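Standup notes
- DV: blocked on the single-chain target, sequence here:
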Amino acid sequence: MNNKKGRFKGTGTVFAFTLKHSMNGKAFMVMTVIIPLLLFAGLFMASYLPSIEKDEEVFTHKVYIVDNTEFDAMGDLFDSSYDKEKYDSLKTVTTYGGDAEKIVAAIPQTETDSFVISVDKTETDGVTAFKVTTIVPSWSEVPEKEYSELSNAAISCVDAIKVSTSGISYEKLMYLSSGIMTDVIKAGEEAETVQDFLIKNIVPMIYCLIIYMIVLLYGQSIGKTVAAEKNSRLMEMILTSIHPEALIIGKILAMCFEAVAQILLWIIGAVAGFFFGDYVAHVSNPEYVNIVSEAIKMFMENQTSFSAAMIVVAILATVFGFCIFGFLSGLIASGVGKPEELASANGVYQVFVIAGFFIAYFVMIKENVMLYPVICILPVTSPFCLGALVLVGSIELWQGIAGLVVMIVMCLVIAVLSAKVYRDKAFFNGSNRVAQILSLMMKRRA
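- DV (later): unblocked, structure below
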């Protein structure tokens, strides 16, 4: 190894070679071009299709109202309570003081769109009560959803009758039945709005889940590539002319760069598709309201959390958090002696990923603010939470910077360990026992 002139000399060359080599494969084209286009098309359709106005179904039901309340008001109240746009062809026939069973028996069987709503006033032990009964003839073809909606309209009419006969005005009734809102504010702090609550709770959860899926998917791919190339004779020749640190760092950084670039293109494709679909939807239907778009606008109105410094720290934390697991996957794969041992090595990698994800996720879902600085410092958990927590202001900016520094240092430490194991195992033949790997990591370089 006398031709080596520096531990990291040649890293750029390995980076460029690895990146160029991966770009020649079909998988690169699929992940970099096809998937962003599919995401663009999918989000466009998801954003645009709900805006297409559909021809509403016309309902021609006939409802027989039997009013036995002694107030003779159900007919007029019912006519003003149901949805006129949906049931614009609805016909009502009101009978005051009638027998509902006789009315059902008198309905011709040719009226397959008819049913009866009977409203009765009863008294039990001096307490007045009302009973709403819906009677659907056996030959009726009225769907349950329709007669249930119209029955609910009749129930609201009974509520109106109860209010009007009680002597209490509607405004006073609403005042008496209104709930009581409570809030706790610490001295010197402003009350937390619904908008702040949603941002500080939903954004970290979504971020944590996305990072988990990405790290699990790409991390195993990195480990597979490192293990496959390490066992080739070409690597032994390369290691005689270039330091293992330069080789492993250049290779893993290239794969991490490729993964981050692809994910960025996915995000651009999805966001562009969504907003373009939303734009086309509003052009074709100006009255359409996109709930997701409105929620995004609500989030962006919170200018107190999203400062420029926090955005930069969040982006860097996301990138270096991914690199931590990328180098960790490379470290574990570097210790693989045979290709068939890669599956067990991936199992070890998955343990780290799953443990870090669940710890970070449950701390955030329980809103244990006291542990936020801890999970943002621990290298195994910080990739899943640091970017989101610093972005929404759940931790201080200096805490986010401290977590980012720990990430960068940990990346370098794992990279050096990966290089040592990679070099030693490239010239080592035998079983992949844990004790042997640890021995190789602790052994000094010759």
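- Follow-up: Residues 11-51+190-442 form one domain.
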